[in-house]
Specification:
alpha/beta; 2 domains; five-stranded parallel beta sheet; 8 helices; 37% helix
Length: 263
Amino acid sequence: MDTVIVDDEPAARRTVRECCEREGDFNVVGEYGDARAALEALRARPPQVLFLDIQMDSMTGMALARALDPENLPLIVFVTAYDHYALEAFEVSAVDYLLKPFDDARFKATAVRVRRRCAGQGSGDRRLALESLLEQLERGARERERSEAQPRVLAEAGSRMHMLEVSQVEVVEADRNYVRLTVGRETFHARSTLQQAERSFQAQPMLRISRSCLVNMKHVKEVSRTPRGDFILVVAGGTTVTSSEGYRDPVRTYLERLKLAPA
């Protein structure tokens, strides 16, 4: 199956390409880091399968998908690092998705569905499935814009409740049935899951560095590496957190974007 990968992160493209190579029947005929260049190529030579990142700088994956020729739609697998994109919509759709970071088992499951759908779906079916999915995603995006993220959250320290500005929270960590919020040298607790907290902090540049930790990147002051390659982040208040192996690539990619371009 001719396959194209569109993602503005080189590491992410490499991961998908290597997974495709291991499967054997996914023939990668193109990789693009720029969505607009990808759109021209996709219109000129539609592949059978398209792995498409949702969040790109020049054009979102949703906008690119809408711009494709509806009569020659590839089978699209959306790739995203952000689970606040309505994954429920993907779960009930005929369009598949991969949530970064994914492992070989998750990719293999996607590959099985892609083969089945390539064999059983016509262009009209794909068009209807894609249109339904995009409408749900865009509706969710509009609702988030209207509600916006919470400007403050209620948390406790000792026997007292405190109203915290979300912009001041430096680190959010899962702690059993609570999350631990770090503000400077103080810590607070709120009854919540990490996923719920992530939605409350979505207006902040929060980066998930492990399954149990989010970091507000605007408060990060120092970054270093462990001998095994994980990232050590020090925030303004002095708290130090370390990324896990499974999130090493997303953290590296985020930090690469912050580097100044060479002269």
